């Protein structure tokens, strides 16, 4: 009897392992693991990373319904709404990214309402396609899948930059169908890479994704029942308090007192000094002493600093300090490449006289580079910080660098090559991040993949449709010269993308950074980037007892300022300060508070800001109701963008003789 029982259990376990393998998505280029190679529960759920063990739940109920009617309805709706809002705000002066956390919160009452009012009747009973509109209480797994849908609409669609550059900046016609093909193909290209690297970047417990812990913490607060600690708050109560505070507070930097975005107090002390304003401006200078009390400014380009582990924040801080406070000032005040003729920080393109370069004059009727016109107008110049930022190449710069050498004079080809070469990796990382979230929350991989694919396709249509509508309905969108001074539709990121297409595509790499160009010395940064990791490795070998050397991450440090411009000094300095307070001070000295509240606070700040920003626009922005007073003068440093070279005349700036 005992023997038959053991054989029965063994057979049952083998059947379960076989079923698990059938639903276990593996890389198509690698051999599927045998049943004996499947990780056990301990290996899957336990992590050596302390932040993960403090946040991620263990245990699972495999019978929890996932692909429910509620999930499809709320997931698709969340994806559409976030896609629309993020593209809508992306063209604005301070681009606001509404994260999936907003949808993660908003769908909870809707999901519970649907669980209450929808009928429980089963359709196609006892058949393969049997389903019900209401399988029971709204559960955390369907909530996770709704959030995965929302994640598809929570970022940006990089190919929209190509559409905007061609239609708005170059003024050329482009059909919606061709635009849609470019958007769809670039968005789905990352799935292949994600499938290949999933085994290495998702399944190992040591591979952790810090930003996912914000959402995991919020899921637990919204679904787990918790007794209120004596003298404190439950996690749900804390989240609601922080959310409400963030929502109410954002009316100040978002409308009433916009200077809170960058309090550049040095400019106030020295209102007539170009040097002081170059040093102190948080938006147009080096940002020394500039303070931001606006969460949108703090998290707009680098994400939430509360989700960044301290070693990563420290590497970004080191890279930012080296570029912004060593290389840029030396290059500017030693007047490398006529640096003092142009602003110290700008994404603009300039003539040798410090004026804005008229790009349309060097584009012929066939949308190609006009060599004779370029020789007549003279070479193109960049601001100091802009040129230095190209010395910290990421994948997007490498792609346009290569195609700019191989195919100069064709800006559209350059932009497309850049988008296809860069976004496939970026999308793959986004898909892998979602897979890790599903891994943390015990969602079947195949179910995750279905939600990702459909969410990505839906988001592509909504993003392009929104961008197309805005380009057709807003006069002079992205044209800062024709827009009013208080217009929000300045498109900072699209300006940078367009400038890059001119530099690398229209004029070409060789005429800017090659042997025929002014900035050829920037190529030495490639050698520095190749040597830098070897220096860290050698230092570790020489000083093996210094464990902090292992925390130096040269790829992160070197690429830390790749967002500048359009990101500004105050975006970085404020992000680093908050990251230090959270990731080092609170994590080290108030570990219990950090464990319970850090990631919840991050989610609450994001969500409160997003809801108020949308409310401000719907109530005031649509009616073009603006509040004009000195507190809404962003930065307050009008001289920060002035040149300091002799005899250079720029409107609104003093002339040096």
Main beta sheet: 2 strands, antiparallel
Low-confidence stretches: 1-10, 16-44
> How much helix, percentage-wise, in residues?
55-70%
Beta strands, count: 4
Order of helices and strands: HHHHHEEHHHHHHHHHHHEHEHHHHHHHHH
The side-by-side strand order for the widest beta sheet comes to: 1-2
Task: Estimate the global geometry from the Cα principal axes.
Answer: globular
Describe the protein in words.
This protein has 657 residues and is mostly helical. Helix content is 57%, strand content 1%. It is built from 26 helices and four strands. It has helices at residues 2-22, 41-45, 50-55, 69-90, 100-117, 140-152, 160-169, 176-188, 190-201, 210-223, 235-249, 251-256, 265-269, 274-280, 295-299, 310-333, 371-377, 384-389, 395-406, 411-440, 445-473, 492-512, 524-542, 554-558, 569-589, 591-621, and strands spanning 122-123, 131-132, 349-350, 381-382. The strands form two sheets. Strands 1-2 form a two-stranded antiparallel ribbon. It has a two-stranded antiparallel sheet with strand order 3-4. A hairpin with a 7-residue loop joins strand 1 and strand 2. Helix 5 (100-117) packs across helix 6 (140-152) and helix 7 (160-169) packs parallel to helix 21 (445-473). The chain starts with a helix and ends in a 36-residue tail after the last helix. 42% of the residues are buried. Mean pLDDT is 85; it is low at 1-10 and 16-44.
């Amino acid at each position: 009897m005992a023997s038959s029982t053991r054989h029965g259990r063994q057979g049952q376990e083998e059947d379960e392992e076989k079923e698990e393998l059938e639903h276990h998505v593996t890389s198509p280029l690698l051999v599927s693991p045998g049943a004996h190679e499947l990780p056990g529960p301990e290996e899957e759920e336990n992590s050596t990373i302390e932040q993960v063990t403090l946040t991620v739940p263990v245990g699972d109920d495999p019978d929890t319904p996932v692909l429910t009617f509620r999930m499809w309805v709320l997931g698709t709706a969340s994806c559409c709404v976030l896609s629309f809002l993020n593209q809508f705000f992306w063209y604005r002066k301070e681009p606001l990214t509404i994260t999936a956390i907003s949808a993660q919160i908003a769908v909870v009452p809707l999901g519970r309402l649907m669980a209450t009012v929808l009928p429980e009747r089963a359709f196609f009973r006892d058949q393969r396609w049997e389903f019900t509109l209401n399988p029971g209480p709204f559960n955390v797994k369907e909530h996770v899948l709704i959030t995965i849908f929302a994640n598809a609409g929570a970022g940006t669609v990089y190919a929209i930059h190509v559409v905007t550059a061609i239609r708005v900046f170059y003024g050329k016609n482009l059909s919606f169908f061709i635009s849609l093909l470019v958007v769809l193909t670039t968005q789905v290209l990352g799935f292949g890479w994600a499938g290949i690297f999933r085994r290495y970047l998702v399944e190992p417990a040591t591979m952790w994704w810090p930003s996912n812990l914000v959402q995991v913490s919020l899921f637990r607060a919204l679904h787990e029942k918790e007794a209120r600690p004596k003298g404190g708050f439950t996690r749900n109560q804390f989240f609601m308090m922080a959310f409400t505070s963030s929502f109410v507070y954002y009316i100040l930097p978002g409308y009433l007192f916009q200077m809170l975005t960058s309090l550049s107090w040095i400019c106030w002390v020295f209102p007539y000094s170009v040097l002081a304003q170059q040093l102190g401006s948080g938006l147009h200078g080096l940002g020394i002493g500039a303070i931001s009390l606006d969460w949108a400014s703090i998290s707009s380009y680098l994400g939430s600093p509360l989700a960044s582990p301290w070693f990563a924040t420290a590497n970004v801080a080191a890279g930012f300090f080296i570029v912004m406070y060593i290389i840029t000032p030396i290059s500017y005040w030693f007047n490398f490449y006529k640096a003092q003729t142009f602003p110290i920080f700008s994404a603009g393109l300039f003539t040798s006289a410090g004026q804005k370069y008229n790009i349309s004059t060097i584009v012929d009727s066939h949308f190609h580079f006009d060599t004779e016109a370029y020789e007549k107008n003279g070479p193109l110049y960049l601001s100091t910080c802009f040129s230095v930022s190209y010395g910290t190449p990421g994948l997007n710069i490498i792609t346009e660098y290569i195609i700019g050498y191989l195919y100069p004079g064709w800006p559209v080809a350059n932009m497309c090559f850049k988008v296809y070469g860069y976004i496939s990796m970026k999308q793959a990382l986004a898909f892998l991040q979602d897979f890790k979230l599903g891994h943390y929350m015990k969602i079947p991989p195949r179910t995750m993949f279905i939600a990702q694919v459909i969410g990505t396709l839906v988001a592509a249509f909504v993003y392009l449709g929104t961008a197309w509508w805005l380009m057709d309905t807003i006069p002079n969108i992205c044209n800062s010269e024709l827009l009013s001074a208080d217009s929000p539709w300045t498109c900072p990121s699209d300006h940078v993308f367009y400038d890059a297409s001119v530099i690398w595509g229209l004029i070409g790499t060789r005429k800017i950074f090659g042997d025929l160009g002014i900035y050829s010395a920037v190529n030495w940064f490639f050698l520095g980037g190749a040597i830098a990791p070897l220096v860290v490795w050698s230092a570790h070998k020489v000083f093996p007892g210094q464990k902090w050397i292992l925390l130096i991450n040269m790829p992160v440090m070197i690429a830390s300022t790749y967002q500048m411009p359009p990101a500004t000094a105050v975006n970085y300095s404020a992000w680093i300060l908050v990251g230090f307070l959270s990731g080092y001070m609170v994590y080290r000295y108030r570990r219990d508070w950090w464990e319970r509240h850090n990631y919840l606070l991050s989610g609450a700040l994001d969500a409160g800001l997003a809801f108020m920003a949308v409310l401000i626009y719907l109530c005031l922005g649509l009616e073009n109701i603006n509040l004009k007073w000195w507190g809404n003068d962003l930065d307050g440093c009008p001289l920060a963008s002035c040149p300091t070279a002799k005899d250079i005349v720029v409107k609104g700036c003093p002339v040096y003789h």
